[in-house]
Structures are given as C-alpha cells and as structure tokens.
Amino acid sequence: MTDSFYFDNTGGVVTLRCRALDSAGFGRHCFTTRIGGISTGHLAYTNLSFSREDKNTVYENYRRVFDAVGIKPTAVLSNQQHTDIVAQVTEPESSENFTPVETADAGTGLRFFVSRTAADGLVTDRSGICLVTFVADCVPIIIADPVRRAAACVHSGWRSTALGIGDAAVRKMQACFGSRPEDLIAAVGPCIGPCCYEVGSDVYDAFAARSELMRGFFAPAHGGKYMLDMGAANRFVLISAGLRPENIHVSGQCTCHNSELYYSHRATKGKRGNMAAMIQI
Fold first, then answer.
1. Is the residue at 182 inside a domain?
2. What tens digit of pLDDT does each residue of 250-278 get?
3. Is residue 160 part of a domain?
4. What's the first-to-final CA gap in the chain, in angstroms?
5. Which of 133, 147, 100 is nearest to 281 (CA)?
6. What is the pTM of this model?
7. Domain encompassing residue 241
8. Is 224 left (phi over 0), alpha (psi -120 to 50) or beta?
C-alpha cells in the first residue's frame, strides 16, 4: 500500500482513507473493508449491498460505517451496470431519478436512495449527501474538487474502464460544476491486482480499442491470457482526462490477494458481499 493511504479503526470498523482527500477538506470519505459489521457467513462482516441479505442487517452495517467516518444523514447509491454513465445528484428525495430504499430507521434518521437508471458514477456539489458505489474486485474511484467543492464516486470494472468512466466523471464535473481537471484530486482504492487478474483477448481488445497505449497494462500469461493492471489503467484514464499525475493516488492493494480483508468476487467464486467507496461534502 502506498503512503497516500492509511487504515482507520474507529469503533471496530476498519476503513481505508486517502491523506490527500483529508488535506483537501474531504475527510468524510472512505473505502470500506470487510471488518466491523454484523453480516455472517460468506457475507461476513460489512456487506453494504441491500440486494444480498436482510435490509436491516445492511442498514446496521451502514450505520456503523457512517458513525466511524462521520457521515450523515442521506446516502445515494449507484445503479451499476458496467457503463460509463455518470449521474448528477442534487435533491434525491424530490427527484424522479432516484427512489428510496426501504429500511427500518432504527431511530438514526439515515435515508438511502438509489438511481432509477444505470449509473456507475455519481457526482454532486451538495453538502450532506453521501455518494456510494460498490465493488468486490472492480476499481473504486473517489474524485474531489477542492476549488468548486464538488465530488464524484465511481465504480470501474473492466468494461467501464475500457469505456473511460474516469474521464466521463471528470467531464461531468466540468459540465455540472465548472471543475477544472488540474484542480481535481483522485483516490483509486483497492481492486484486483495484476498478480491475480487474468483476462482474455476480449478484454485486451476492448482496452486497445480505446487507446493503443492501454496495451501496456497487460502482461502475457499462459494460454493466450493476460494479467491486467486495473489500478494503473484507471490512473491512465484520469491522466488522459487532464488530472495532474501527482494528484492521482493509487492504493495498490489487491482485493483478491487479501480476501480476508476485502470482498473478492474472483477469490470466492462469487460468494461474497459488497464493499463501498463513499464521500460526503
């Protein structure tokens, strides 16, 4: 793990944070781990997907994470379908673009909304709204604009990476908030690493179709397969979008290689929960 990141353990909830986001005034952010929640079995312990188990259990997991990070009271969840679609979040309770997630309140006042349509990325400049995207090997990206006080949260699987969702998020921030790419700070969280991510020629061809330079993120493996460096590929996409290289921080943590700390779809053959990247202005 690079020096740009550190683990925080508050109340038994372990999250990964980025020092650059803290320094820029975006302390209410994190990449979650498996540690600290109440889920059991193959979902143990901090599953944050409402579609994988009893919603009240997931609600309690969120409550613990939010308490640890200082997030409250409204969260907007992505509707991930491996696209390059990025949605703007303003007032989810009065927008036709978002629908409430029904949970037991338990007296905390937390409210959850989910995008009605496909959205693998979310952007906002509103305070008090937590943006949430989900991962379990895919690449989580948090982008912050300390000048315009705006933020983005992105899920980037291989399809979204090949489509350049990091670039799409930057362009969305430019269009919605007047953000300048050179002002932006990005944190690329834990994802499956080049040590574990074996892919086929279809993935190689999709990346090469975006840019010949993206061939450089593949290393030949046996049987015509390749080992893909997703963290580096997303860093490249962000640099291509205009971010300064020194403002892009990549954790370097492999979720598959560290599946006791992180959920990994590949390591568990799909028997897993979901972690989240989240940020609140």
1. yes
2. 999 999 999 999 999 999 999 999 999 99
3. yes
4. 26
5. 147
6. 0.97
7. 5-190+231-280
8. left
